[in-house]
Amino acid sequence: MANDAIIADLKKSIETWNVALCKEATQKAIDAKMSVSEIMDKGLGEGMAVIGQKFNDAEIFLPQVVAASKTMEVALKMLEPLMSGGSSANKGTVVMGTVEGDIHEIGKNVCCAMLRGAGYNVIDVGPDADSQTFLDAAEENDAKVLGGSALMTTTLEAQRELVIANNEDGKKYKCIFGGAPCSKEWCDEIGADGYSATGSEIIELVKSLM
Ligand code: B12
């Protein structure tokens, strides 16, 4: 099966929350030795973008979004060994979480897995994590970087709060942010140390800050 067809199936499986198709297409992608970033960015992620658009346009509702994210999670589980088996070296510690008030965590989980695969020790503080939770985890684990995900325009402010809390704490850590509504401009505005649009780019970003 050509890679284009596999990509099309990956995208379709999320759009139609078809778990069986998702498992089959993900296995085919793994067998075809496609890169995780290609599988994510061109296939599964594109499907999720369609879901987001349809939700926005009220063509589908929350249960369908939940079904699509559960489908995505099945694929992520299958991809995990590929993402975390890359290196055994510990290049430093990164605390990752989704900021306070925001329960979206698929993108954050992708970033965690990509970073682990690249040899970083990742402490995942989960979704809906307040600034103090990030700072405590960083202190306890001697981290260098805090990564905060926000998927809603309403929770972008919590990224600013994390920068402020870090500054008040002596600016010990580098703060990086991402998530669909986040941007380089926003990160500059709030005084963050970095932004990346995808889980593939986060590796270079963290490397540049370590
Ligand atoms: C899946 C989903 C859900 C799932 C989440 C499941 C889960 N376990 O995460 C469920 C159904 C639970 C959900 C709930 C809600 N959702 Co929702 N959801 C989505 C959806 C469709 C996809 C998000 C996703 O997983 N994308 C796939 C991943 C892989 O992409 P990503 O997150 O962007 O991550 C990549 C990059 O951004 C980057 N990245 C991500 N994080 C980080 C962090 C760092 C540090 C860096 C450097 C990079 C980085 O790398 C990632 C990998 O490449 C989006 C639509 C969209 N287009 O984003 C809406 C969306 C985010 N949801 C939305 C809403 C409104 C909600 C709800 C409020 C709905 C409701 N009425 O209850 C609740 C949220 C409640 C809360 N308090 O948080 C809105 C937000 C609108 C806004 N205000 O901005 C969106 C945009 C949908 C829409 N079009 O209206 N949602």
From TrEMBL:
Sequence ranges assigned to domain B12-binding in this UniProt record: 91-210
Source superkingdom: Archaea
The keyword DNA-binding belongs to this UniProt entry's keyword annotation: no
Pfam family, one: B12-binding_2
SMART domains (UniProt xref): B12-binding_2
Gene3D superfamilies in UniProt: Cobalamin-binding domain, Methionine synthase domain
GO BP annotations listed: homocysteine metabolic process; methylation; tetrahydrofolate metabolic process
Protein's recorded name: Monomethylamine methyltransferase corrinoid protein
Assigned keywords, A-Z: Cobalt, Metal-binding, Methyltransferase, Transferase
InterPro entries: Cbl-bd_cap, Cobalamin-bd, Cobalamin-bd_sf, Met_Synthase/Corrinoid, Meth_synthase_dom
Origin organism lineage: Archaea, Methanobacteriati, Thermoplasmatota, Thermoplasmata, Methanomassiliicoccales
Domain B12-binding N-terminal: 1-91
Cellular component terms (Gene Ontology): cytosol
Annotated organism of origin: Methanomethylophilus alvi (strain Mx1201)
GO molecular function terms attached to this record: cobalamin binding; metal ion binding; methionine synthase activity
